[in-house]
């Protein structure tokens, strides 16, 4: 199975690059003739600009996967749907429309208002499930990462909140799902922010596929504010899992990226808008 992954959006554009950066991530995954859009960052315009530079047509997108509800992963959806200009399935968790927010240093709404209704008007067909779902042979979502499925060091507070039954409660970001591809070289796992924990997500992909060979993990690992001990445990877990390639960006953070680079050497590469990853 030949896989080609285009980085359509990341917080970093790369050195001497013509591509646009923005807060968030977006990948176009090309596999067996199908094109899967994974996340839509904050804004559509930079994604569409980068697609043009990469000679990609948004009308060729066959399906969309949204990792979770935060605006830096869903904000560009409506603009991209306008360009697709036809019906297209959107795979997500049922809590993708929840009221989610941070309270420090002040209240900040983290979702995208009226996402459901506006997307439907533009041809989006919502496929909402907590369970893993197969998009095509060898390509599947991870579904909800339950608390009991998480490795111990990835459990704990997220610092985020949501409204449930009129009450303010902690948001564990249960709506975050990842995407996995079972290639000849091993599993390829994509994460948007990895709020449930990147190691837990990789282990869920291994469990679902029955394949313990992990070739590549890419996306945001949400270690930007993590304690040193968690960063070290994450890097060690990747080494124990014998992950061959790590492509990290967005919310991973400079400190974590540096540790991956120090420990993995050439096996680590920093993500940037316009980066193309080919696996055959």
From TrEMBL:
PANTHER family xref list: 7,8-DIHYDROPTERIN-6-METHYL-4-(BETA-D-RIBOFURANOSYL)-AMINOBENZENE-5'-PHOSPHATE SYNTHASE, METALLO-BETA-LACTAMASE SUPERFAMILY PROTEIN
Ranges for domain Metallo-beta-lactamase: 23-250
Single Gene Ontology MF annotation: hydrolase activity
Cross-referenced CDD domains: DHPS-like_MBL-fold
Organism listed in the record: Pyrococcus horikoshii
Protein name: MBL fold metallo-hydrolase
Keywords, comma-separated and alphabetical: Hydrolase
Tagged with keyword Hydrolase: yes
């Amino acid at each position: 199975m030949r896989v080609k992954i285009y980085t359509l959006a990341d917080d970093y554009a790369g050195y001497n690059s013509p591509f646009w950066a923005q807060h968030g991530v977006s990948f176009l995954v090309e596999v067996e003739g199908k094109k899967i859009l994974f996340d839509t960052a904050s804004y559509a315009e930079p994604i569409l600009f980068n697609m043009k530079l990469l000679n990609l047509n948004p009308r060729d997108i066959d399906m969309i996967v949204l990792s979770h509800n935060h605006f830096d992963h869903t904000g560009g959806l409506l603009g991209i749907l306008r360009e697709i200009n036809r019906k297209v399935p959107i795979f997500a968790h049922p809590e993708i429309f929840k009221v989610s927010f941070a309270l420090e240093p002040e209240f900040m709404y983290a979702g995208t208002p009226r996402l459901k209704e506006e997307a439907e008007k533009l041809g989006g067909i919502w496929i909402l499930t907590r369970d893993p779902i197969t998009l095509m042979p060898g390509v599947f979502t991870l579904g909800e990462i339950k608390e009991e499925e998480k490795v111990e060091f990835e459990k704990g507070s997220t610092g985020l909140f949501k409204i449930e039954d009129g009450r303010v409660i902690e948001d564990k970001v249960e709506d975050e799902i990842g995407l996995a591809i079972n290639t000849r070289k091993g599993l390829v796992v994509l994460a948007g922010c990895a709020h449930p924990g990147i190691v837990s997500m990789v282990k869920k992909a291994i469990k679902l596929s029955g394949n313990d060979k992990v070739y590549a993990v890419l996306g945001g690992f949400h270690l930007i504010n993590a304690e040193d001990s968690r960063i070290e445990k994450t890097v060690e877990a990747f080494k124990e899992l014998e992950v061959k390639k790590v492509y990290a960006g967005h919310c991973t953070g400079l400190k974590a990226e540096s540790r991956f680079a120090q420990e993995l050497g050439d096996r680590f590469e920093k993500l940037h808008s316009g980066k193309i990853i080919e696996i055959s």
